[in-house]
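Hi F.,

I've been meaning to write this up properly since the lab meeting, where we talked about keeping a consistent format for the predictions we share between groups. The idea is simple: the sequence comes first, exactly as it goes in, then the structure tokens exactly as they come out, then a line or two of notes. No screenshots and no reformatting. I'm using this chain as the first example so we have something concrete to point to.
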Amino acid sequence: MGSFARTWNFLALLLGAAISPAQTLHSPISKFAVEDLSGHRVNYSSFRGNVTVIIFVSARCPISNAFNFRINELYKKFHENTRFLVVDPNANESIEEIRTHAKNMEYDFSVYRDPDNVLSDLLGARATPDSFVIDKNGEISYHGYIEDTPNPERSKNQALRLAIEAALQDRPAPMAETHARGCAIHRAHPIS
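Output, unedited:
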């Protein structure tokens, strides 16, 4: 084993977790856990057979907050046939702050935390908002923005909605990958 590999394994051991690269488009999603706003761990392991939408949000980011109403509308439109997982991955936002924000926004969905950034690291999320669609085969079929602009009146591409519709119809997303724009995730640990 080379010096780099020994150093990498030692760092992984120090961090107490296996470090792996982010999942890629069209790869099967691995199991993971998030935390509900009561502090309880919620495990996700089976993605086959269901379409799952994962959206990373922030209580503080004005760009993320510009999409709150549209996220809620997507949830209302698709929640009967789709699992939604809305996650705040920011280490600088407390459970109480996230809970208050979710209540003030009158979300119809639950919000979760990713306290050690396991899920955001697994998926390669870097900003809020950032979104992913996992198709019925349990594979990532879309990664990117919710819409192409925070201003709903100027939006020309509702990429997330189109990706959800495609996944529900067992079709590939029209645009499998777009570039999420927003506020950088405040991670619990630095990433390389």
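Notes:
The beta strands are 32-35, 41-44, 51-56, 82-88, 111-113, 127-128, 130-134, 140-144, 183-184.
The chain is about 30% helix and 20% strand.

If this format works for you, I'll send the rest the same way.

G.
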